[in-house]
Amino acid sequence: MWFADVYDPLLAGALDGSAGAPHDAAIQRAQCSHYKPPKHVSTDPLKTLYVGRLNFDTTEASLEQHFKLYGDIVSVTIIRNLGKSFTGCSEGYGFVTFERTRSAEKAYSQANHSVLDNHMILVDYERARVMSGWIPRRLGGGIGGRKESGQLRFGGRDKPFRWPIRRDTVEIRPEQRRDDTVFLKYVSETHEPRSQPSA
């Protein structure tokens, strides 16, 4: 399994992973925030997958049914609105923890963009307990999202970093260049071009 080991909201806010001035208020909020993952969660983060874009009517039972194809499941949780305006309604995402790492890897590679309850879901690794400096979306951080929301973040499976326009001025750490399924090799622009065959 691969994941970036450090989260930086400023880098996540840029398509090419380059640091610059914060371009939205949420990034500024994230830079001033400190997040501690909940201590009551005892599942193994390396065997836990984030499942996003769920139908608001999806239940834990249907989520488990969808993922048990990939291996034995330890727990399934759908995040619900339990704040001040307690509704108990789904927030549209959840977590699935497998008994084995291999099962989580299989689900990661095969279940992404599958359809559950008429919604194409997003499957990625859990970030909160494995990335140092993680800031969730509600505090201005996170990854993914939509341009229309005004809080688009990069560096995850759904919205990976892209190569910078000016490669000579920006360094992208190797762990930010790819996800599990893609490997990009940077060839220096000073590299000798291949010779053209003569006619």
TrEMBL record:
InterPro entries: Nucleotide-bd_a/b_plait_sf, RBD_domain_sf, RRM_dom, U1_U11-U12_snRNP_70-35kDa. Residues 47-128 form the RRM domain. Keywords: Nucleus, RNA-binding. PANTHER family: U1 SMALL NUCLEAR RIBONUCLEOPROTEIN 70 KD, U11_U12 SMALL NUCLEAR RIBONUCLEOPROTEIN 35 KDA PROTEIN. GO terms for biological process: mRNA splicing, via spliceosome. The keyword Lipid biosynthesis does not apply. The lineage of its organism: Eukaryota, Fungi, Fungi incertae sedis, Mucoromycota, Mucoromycotina. It is found in: Nucleus. This is RRM domain-containing protein. It holds the Pfam family RRM_1. GO terms for molecular function: mRNA binding; snRNA binding. One of its GO terms (cellular component) is precatalytic spliceosome. It comes from Syncephalastrum racemosum. The keyword RNA-binding applies.
